[in-house]
Specification:
With 327 residues, this protein is an alpha+beta fold. It is 30% helix and 24% strand.
Length: 327
């Protein structure tokens, strides 16, 4: 995977229309082999504004070709000639005004086209796996990107919770890594038990494609049917301050993980994070796969924000990344 940047293509879908007027220039960029934050600094320099005046919805892979939108705060200032901004690593596709800045997590989804090279194995078995993924989804793990270069963000988080000082810009990354690790541990337990996409007593449910949750409530035939149809999904904890919302069998699993990692749980609570929930199920929309004449495998799919393409790919095959994951 990532034999070349063109083999990992990502296109961001904001999910809302731009108004055409306002203090913020929304600049859509195509970048190749470029860091998201680095591109933001280039846009700020070109527009003659401070780096803090530029924002984006989410980090996109560096070793890839990606299309994403940045907002540049230009109150009372005209737009520069964005299309004259020439750079070997990115180009401006379009720019339009909007009345609000682009905040983190404000986009709806990402479209992916991933090409795997030098694929070996049974094509018939691969096709069965592809069909299963399309129908049932995969466990919604946080990908290794969340844990930093070399995966050391978790240990750095433990050190921060134990009293070691961390720079302000690092603190959010370390808190996210600790939270993601605990969620992944809960999900892994349910995967091992074969019920990560099933209904347990005490389940907290999420409406598919949204962040709306409800429950726990007694299991009924109606709930089981909604789960089978993909209308609702079981959730796991994003740990923080406060009581778990889950109950019964689900709470037993989640409290067991919390008890094994009380240092992380305490650190998250002390830093003001609140209990939240995340779906245990990752469903790819419009998932399709095709074999290429040179033996490669091309995957196309759409994921809602917060989900990881590499997590989906690893359920299909074992792969080596010729480029590093993190930015």
């Amino acid at each position: 995977m990532r034999a070349s940047p063109e083999d990992f293509y990502v296109e961001e879908d904001l999910g809302f229309e731009l108004e055409g007027a306002g203090e913020h220039a929304f600049v859509r960029v195509e970048k190749r082999g470029a860091n998201t934050e680095w591109v933001a600094r280039q846009l700020a320099s070109y527009a003659g504004v401070a780096p803090g005046a530029v924002s984006y919805a989410g980090m996109k892979d560096r070793h890839a070709v990606t299309r994403q939108t940045y907002s540049v705060h230009l109150p009372g200032k005209p737009d520069p000639d964005w299309h004259a901004l020439a750079n070997a690593e990115f180009r401006v596709l379009e720019a339009r005004r909007h009345n609000r800045k682009l905040k983190r997590g404000a986009h709806r989804a990402n479209e992916f086209r991933i090409v795997l090279r030098d694929v070996t194995g049974d094509h018939t078995a691969a096709q069965r796996c592809i069909e299963r993924i399309a129908a049932l989804g995969v466990p919604n793990y946080f990908g290794e990107q969340r844990f930093g270069r070399g995966g050391d963000n978790l240990e750095r988080a433990r050190a921060m919770f134990a009293g070691r000082r961390a720079q302000r810009h690092e603190q959010g990354l370390l808190l996210s890594a600790a939270r993601a690790f605990l969620f992944n541990r809960v999900l892994a337990r349910r995967v091992c038990s074969g019920n990560w996409n099933a209904a347990l007593e005490g389940e907290v449910w999420m409406l598919a494609g949204s962040h709306s949750i409800f429950g726990p409530e007694p299991l009924t035939g109606a709930l089981i049917e909604r789960l089978a149809s993909g209308d609702i999904e079981p959730t796991g904890p994003m740990f923080g301050e406060g009581e778990l919302r889950s109950a019964s069998d689900v709470a037993d699993v989640e409290q067991a993980v919390a008890g094994e990692h009380s240092d992380l749980l305490g650190g998250l609570a002390r830093n003001g994070l609140r209990q939240e929930r995340r779906s245990l199920v990752l469903r790819a929309q419009n998932f399709a796969a095709s074999w290429l004449p040179d033996g490669g495998l091309e995957l196309r799919f759409r994921l809602n924000k917060g989900s990881y393409a590499t997590v989906l790919v690893r359920e299909l095959c074992t792969f080596n990344a010729l480029q590093e994951f993190p930015e």
